[in-house]
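for the writeup, i need someone to sanity check this before i put it in the appendix. the sequnce is what the collaborator sent (i think, or maybe the updated version? ugh). structure was predicted straight from it, no edits. if anything looks off just tell me and ill rerun, i have time this weekend
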Amino acid sequence: MIRRRFTTLLALAGVGAMAARATDARAQADAPVRKPDLADAAAGTYVGDVISDSKGSSQSNVTLTVTRVGKNIVRVTSDYPRLPVIDVPLTSAMGKILQQRGNSVFLLDRAANRLDVSFLNEVSWSGARR
């Protein structure tokens, strides 16, 4: 008797788990697909050089990582401690992606895969997509 109840409970649990997975799969399939934006186009890894620094010297072979954090917003990080982490709202003009506002310059020339960033108007970096 106890074994029969246990077997029935196991069977019901299995059916419930399968139904939950099916519901999750349908929900993911029905979820609207997000249209790529400027942040998606800019996201990636770039390698270049610090070309100007008001508080230090130039630095070669610096890697920047550009990550999408929101609609038309990217976060720029680097492997060089002198460069701060910045969030940049993006817009486009004349075939280029650039910062919409703020005191950090972000200019991506998509045709040349070339990125120029000026962090807080103190230090400038220039490089290309890896």
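The chain has two domains: 1-31, 38-129. Residues 1-31 form one domain.
thx in advance!!
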